[in-house]
Amino acid sequence: MKCPYCGDEESKVIDSRPTEDGERIRRRRECLRCRKRFTTYEVVETLPLMVIKKDNSREAFDRQKLLNGMLRSCEKRPVSYQTLEKAVSNIEQTLLNSYDREVSSVRIGELTMQELKKIDEVAYVRFASVYRQFADVESFFTELRKLMDDRKG
C-alpha cells in the first residue's frame, strides 16, 4: 500500500476491524519509511451482475430499482421497509450465489414474486399483475386461484 505522505510502498498493519456495516475492513497502517499513520479500507471486489431484459438488451443489476418495484407493490400494506430490504438482499444473494454474471429479468421477477408471496399476498398479486401483464380479469383470477390452492395445500 502506497503511503499518502511519502509515496513509499512499504507499510505495516497496526489495527484491523470491520466497519459498522460489516461490508469493509478498516485498517490502520504505519509507513515503514516516514512512520506516519494512515487508514485504508478493504472491500471485496465483485463483478457486476448483468440483467438480460426481455428485448435482449443488458443493463447492470440495480438493487434500488428492484426495491422500488417492491415498494410500489406494498404501498398501503403493513410491510416494513426493513422486510423489503431483507427480501431484496435474499434475491441479490441468490443471484450472486448462482455464479452466473448474467441473469434474465424473468428470473429476477420470479424470485421477487416468491419473496412477496411469503411477505404479503396482496403485494404478491399486485406485483404479478404488472410483471405478468395480465391482459384481462380472467388471467387475474387464474393467478388468484393458484394462490388459493397454494394456501390450501
Helix content bin: 40-55%
Class per helix and strand makeup? alpha+beta
Gyration radius, in Å: 23 Å
Strand order, largest beta sheet: 1-2-3
Show unreliable segments: none
Distance between the termini: 59 Å
Total number of helical segments? 5
**Which geometry do the CA atoms define?**
elongated
Provide the domain count.
Answer: 2
Largest sheet: 3 strands, antiparallel
- Could you tell me the mean pLDDT? 89
Strand proportion, as a percent range, falls in: 15-25%
Question: What order do the SSEs take from the amino end to the carboxyl end, as H and E?
Answer: EEEEEHHEHHH
Number of strands: 6
Function: Negatively regulates transcription of bacterial ribonucleotide reductase nrd genes and operons by binding to NrdR-boxes.
Protein name: Transcriptional repressor NrdR
Organism: Faecalibacterium gallinarum
Family: Belongs to the NrdR family.
